[in-house]
Amino acid sequence: MDMLRICGLRKRFGDKEVLRGLDLTVPENSIFGFIGQNGAGKTTTMKSVLGLLRADGGEIFVNGERVVYGQTATNRYIGYLPDVPEFYSFMTAPEYLDFCGAISGMGKRETSKRRDELLELVGLREETHRVGGFSRGMKQRLGIAQALLGRPKLLICDEPTSALDPLGRKEILDILLAVREQTTVLFSTHILTDVERICTDVAFLHGGTVRVQGTLGEIKSRFRQDEYLLETDSEAHLTAITEAFPAVRRREGNQLILSVKNTPAFEVLGFVSAHRIPLVRWERVEPTLETMFMEVIES
Amino acid sequence: MKTLLAFLKKELTEQLRSGRVLFLGILFVLFGIMNPAVAKLTPWLMEQLADTLAESGMTVTEVNITAMDSWVQFFKNVPMALIAFVLLESSIFTKEYRSGTLILSLTKGLERYKVVAAKTAVLILLWSAGYWLCYAVTYAYNAYYWDNAIAKSLSFSAVVWWVFGLWVIAFTVLFSTLCTANTGVLVGTGGVVLASTVVAMVPKVSKFLPTLLTDGNSLIYGQKSPEDYTAALVITGVTSVAALTVSIVRFNKKQL
Chain A contacts of B18, Cβ < 8 Å? Predict the structure, then answer.
């Protein structure tokens, strides 16, 4: 089942049309990477899902229920971590989680049990200071704890790692991986290595619509262009190959890229074997998210 | 109900830990002490000024101070306490808009009207506690030095002024849901009070306006009777309820 379905979402701010009929489907129990440049409309999309922004057109369904702007009942399925989460600075972390439990109607005993579990998970168990003195990373971790408090079916994180140092990023990504068993995670980012590390599904947002969407494996195979990389140990050998097969491309170092569309791989291998050219490397080129993203943006 | 109480508890904790409760407590007690103190010091002040006054041809005879002078001071000082209160609390909504702290609460399923209800309740509670503390301090000093019985309709005059404060709070809440910055809240609330004051200069309509409720002096001197305040009280009540209703409707649709 789809945890989140967005159909034809439109939103404009003044004369700037940010979303132009965006479609998105987030399957249950996925870790969904929502990728786009700054200003592409990631936050706008997420805020519309939470009913915090009034969309100009389109429909959003969370767990099969339609999202309404303003008093948004579907938020009971959602845990939300904004890009820069702000808490009441006069509270301590446990006090804030107790407050969150109370306003979402959770029982006292359940709240305190869940509070202790989550503070343990995000590593704030021993923290006794008020939130006002927290670092960015600590706030982000408390943000995840509050988002997970009500055992949401969908966890929405808006650029959870963008403002953090490498260690802080790793901590957040580890937590997101750890909660995958319990919930579906949708997180927006422009840090592609984060996506590659933890995501099962991805969508590229560009020009106000989702250009490509699917599981990471599907998308990679769609972008795979049956290219091979060949590396030898000397310049002379490279020249010999390029002269025999003019369609191959040179890369930095002693590397060549050949596409099977115009250069049959086995003929190249035959040539290599016939001329006894020592091979350092011969591999199939896997598309990286970066190359795929660039391709999407440039198309 | 439980979720409303939880948000109310958060508001009260915030007021306490930010020191606002302490500040308001000191402020209202000081105003309460000032009223009898100024009255008590008047004869001494006059004496000090006697020479200067004599030069301009005025003779100071014996100044007779009663509880009335202290109550007149009370009605003169309470507006300042209310202004201080509104200045201090005008950011009760707007600072949450600015910091984005409400977003997390609302996305947890907290109904929006409960935010308005809890914040309004805290404002009413603080205003009531402060105002009646100020009244009690003045009353106690007056009873000790003079006799409060001299003032006519004293309790009624105090109650209507308190109601005026509630009316101002209703508009503070209304403008807090209409504006995003607390300057807007102050300008809006101040504008409404000013408009009521200006319109009240027309004698025929003055008895219908909330500003009439601030005229405690006419009551304690017996120039007006409590019945004269009925129309103004009804209108104050109706406009307060209307302001709060609009606040809730408006807040339900507010983009945060």
Answer: 90
